[in-house]
Amino acid sequence: MKEWVHQLNKAFENRVRLGIMSVLMVNEAVSFNRLKELLGVTDGNLASHLRALEKLDYVEMKKTFLDRKSHTTYDVSALGRKAFTEHLNALESLLKP
User: Fold this and answer.
1) Residue 64 and residue 80: Cα distance in Å, rounded?
2) What are phi and psi for residue 68, nearest 5 degrees?
3) Handedness of CA 11, 12, 13, 19 (dihedral sign)
4) Which range is the signal sequence, renumbered to this chain (predicted)?
């Protein structure tokens, strides 16, 4: 088996997690609602995938209050950035002839 296969990260096999990481890699501190809007998923679906990525320390959550309302944002962690970059490199290797 090729070496790149072992570099594919199972955490990113799901389209929602792949989408979350893609958005966070190119943006700073994206709100929960914006992620939900961009990915076209329900609150519960997004929350469960974000929780899974948080458990792996791939994303970081920050809660603040704006006009007395809770405002939750997410950002990619250094570990998450490294893991996702390695995953993308493995996918690129797959596509090379």
Assistant:
1) 22
2) 65, 15
3) positive
4) none
The model's pLDDT over 15-71, given as tens digits with 9 standing for 90+, comes to 999 999 999 999 989 999 999 999 999 999 999 999 999 999 999 999 988 888 888
Distance (Å, whole) CA 73 – CA 10? 24
How is 2-28 classified by DSSP, letter by letter?
-HHHHH--GGG-SHHHHHHHHHHHHSS
pTM for this one? 0.89
Which domains, and CATH codes, for the chain? 3-95 (1.10.10.10)
